[in-house]
Every structure is written in structure tokens, then in C-alpha cells.
């Protein structure tokens, strides 16, 4: 009984996912380039004694990249995480985590053998107590330090190639803000030079899988610090909304009475401080964001540039996007045409799927509409509306996966922008996740959406949709095959009858009215064929 209780406690207190594991942010780990901590459950490296995993060399993808990043060896994020570590824990079965101390998404239990599917719900369908609990969880995450992770405050070169570690503590909420910043920041080239056309989480195929992992990790952190294992992120269904329906003090904060760019003092979020919003300052200093406070959340929904984003997305925009059959196309960046990913991300017109970076549709439209902290890519996760928004974007991705049922091979294996090939590891996550691992239905990852749990008839219609679409594409061939089959059947039937007449010589007067049952079955089968 004691052993069971200890095992259960270890599962509850297991390390969760983030950036640099605290146990590996030291001189020894950086110089040896090894991050293989012991699992607390048995004290062995990666839980090897319990068959959870083992310390292994990292296998990097050798697939060619697209032309968008013409450098090599200048950015710590290239071939992630090999600049910092080239050996990490490789976990077995359903185990996961930097020490193999966790269960994979969608599994639970002491041995990670119990399947589970949790439901993300519409924030407006939550009861008052559920909604208040969610807001309290957000505030707790903003005020509790991350136990297992730290952030880097310098590049590997600035750390003197590992001999001078530069890391600092950070609270749980800001850990995720920093990770979003780090994945999308510019490349520092030395002097005052930077390269802006790089992003490991946006503008390329990995946009949707990356944010899917981000939300799963965030959910797990909240489950851990609160002990609420059933917690899921609510979503805001913004289709056809006339304004920001969650921008009031009951939900995510209303407008300040005297300064429309700030939040109402009645909202708990009005006291929050943002981090990682001064990208030009970091670039000029050739420095990383150090997660120091940079002022309050800014938000002025609807007072954005209307020429760029005239309105919030409509249901028709979403339905057109879902009708696109190609996940990715062309250069696989923000110039891609007829790409589901690029249209949902918002760089292609939601009515034509033609790339138009001067306009912001769907996902991008929400960010621009908020007209504040959420409108700048690197610091957008500072605004907690980011979570509600991206949960709904992920639900649209999920609808596309269920409708079109793509094979893994649909996700590009090569020639995508840096970091976005199928087998590339996502920046800056440790433990390691490949892009292709999250190009799968959400139920396989342990969660679903309330509004997608439809009646059986609708599910059956969704199941038939991709096959009907394929049938339309080959309809002419099917008709031709049917006509040809009918002609062949008629000719064969005629030949059979002629042969019988010639062989048997039976007169028409004494022919039986019915054919032998065996012959009848043969003719019927041929006709059906």
C-alpha cells in the first residue's frame, strides 16, 4: 500500500514540460552536452532501472530546408537542441518528460497505461464557479515560480560555450510567454545586425503542431500546480462576433475608464506585468529577453487598423478554410497559396486562399483586432486571451484533420523553412517533440472539444465526406467503367445464349420458361459486376 501511495505521489508531482530543465542548467551538463537527469522514482538515469527510458544520442533530421534562412551555425536554435545538448532521455512506451517521469499526453496512471480523453469547453458554457476557478488558476500561474525550468538570459556564445551558464528563475505563466518569444525571436548576427525572416513557431507548416504542444504543456502545468487533473483550457468561439465578447471584467478584463489602452482596475489582469515585448531593444543590444517586467498588459480591441483587419472572422471564412484539401503548398511560408495552414494562420485570404500578407485573416485577425500586447508576435502570449484564442484555432485544425483524414506523409518532410520539417524538433521544448508527432487527431493526444462531440449521424457524415470528395474527383472514370462493364456483360450474355442454341438445338416451343438456377446466378453476378 505504501509503495502504491508513493508511486501515485510521484505521478502527481512529476516534472512537466518546458524549456531548460533546472537540473541541466549547469556547467557540467552544458560542457558535456548531456541532459539525462535521474528519475525520482528509482534514482536511475532516465528511469532506466524501471524500463522508462535511457540516455541516448539525439538523432537530428538531415532533410534539406527551404531557402528562407541562408545561414548556418549562427543561431542556437538551429538543429535544436544540439547547440546545448546532444544527449537526452529517450523514453519508452507511454513515458515522457526530460527524465521520463511523466506520461505521454492522453495517458495517466502509475505506469501510464490508462487512456484518458478530456474535454475543452466553450468559456461561455462554464458555470460561474468554473469560470472563476479558471481565472484564479491563471493568476496563480503568474505568481508561482516554475520548480523544474529556468530560462536562458544569454546565447550559448555569451555563456562562453557553456562554461558560464546564464539562466534565471521565472514564474509558470511567464515561462510560456518566454518560450513563445524564444521560438519567434530574430536571429542575432552580431554588431547591430539581425535576421528577421525566421520563426520556429509561425509562418510555416509547424504553426499548428507547435501551438498544439504549447497548449498541452500549459494545461499540464496548471494541472500540476493546482492538483486539478481534470483542468482543460476553455476556448472562445469568435466566429461572427461583433466585438470582443470576453473583454469585460467578468471574464478577461474590461476597458480602463480613463485609458482605453489599459485594462479595467476591477480585473485581476490589470496588475499583470508583461515581458519580452521590446524586440528592437534586444536586437540593438544583441541580447535575449531576460523576462524583466516591462509594464501592464495593453489592449484596445476594435481600434485597430481597419484596412488590415476590417472585421473579426466569420463562420463562412472558417468553412472555406476547412474546405481546402492541401495542408501546405508552394514555398510553405506566408506566401503559400491554397494552403489550409496559411489560410488558417491568416496570411492568405479566407475567401480565396491566395496569399496576401498585407491583410490579416482568421488567426492573425484576432491578434491585430486586440490592438495591444497580443498584436506583437513575440510578446503576444502575455495577454491571457491568447490561450482562449489558440484553443479555438486548434479546434479548427482538429476539424480539418477529422474531415480530411490526412496521412502523416501529408506533413512536409523536407524543404520547409528552418525548424518546420516533419522530423525537426520543436524549439525550444525539452523534452523533445517532432512536428509530425502532433499532426494527428486530438483524441489520440487525450483531449476533445465540446462542440465537436456531435451526434452519431453527423460523425458518420464527417466520416463519409473525404470519400465522397474523392469519388467526385474520379466520377467520370466510374461512369466510364460502369458503361464498359455493361457492354461486356451484354456481349457475354449474347454469346452464351447463341452457343446454347447451336449446341442443344432445342426448339423454342419446348424450351423451359426458367433457366437452371446455377446459370441464373452466374448471369446475375455478371450483371452486377
In the CATH hierarchy, the architecture of the domain at 118-303 and 371-426 and 433-452 is: Orthogonal Bundle
Overall 3D geometry? Answer: globular
Oligomer: single chain
**CATH homology superfamily of the domain at 118-303 and 371-426 and 433-452:** Di-copper center containing domain from catechol oxidase
What name is given to the CATH topology of the domain at 118-303 and 371-426 and 433-452? di-copper center containing domain from catechol oxidase
Strand count = 14
Backbone structural class:
mainly alpha
Spell out the helices and strands N to C: HEHEEEEEEEEHEEHEEHHHHHHEHHH
Strand order across the largest sheet: 1-10-11
Determine the fraction of residues in helical runs and give it as a percent range.
25-40%
Using only C-alpha atoms, the radius of gyration works out to 29 Å
CATH class of the domain at 118-303 and 371-426 and 433-452: Mainly Alpha
Mean pLDDT: 88
Q: Would you identify the regions where 5 or more consecutive residues have pLDDT less than 50?
A: 1-18, 501-529
Provide the β-strand percentage band.
5-15%
* Helix count, DSSP H or I runs of 4 or more residues: 13
**End-to-end gap:** 65 Å
Q: Tell me about the biggest sheet?
A: 3 strands, antiparallel
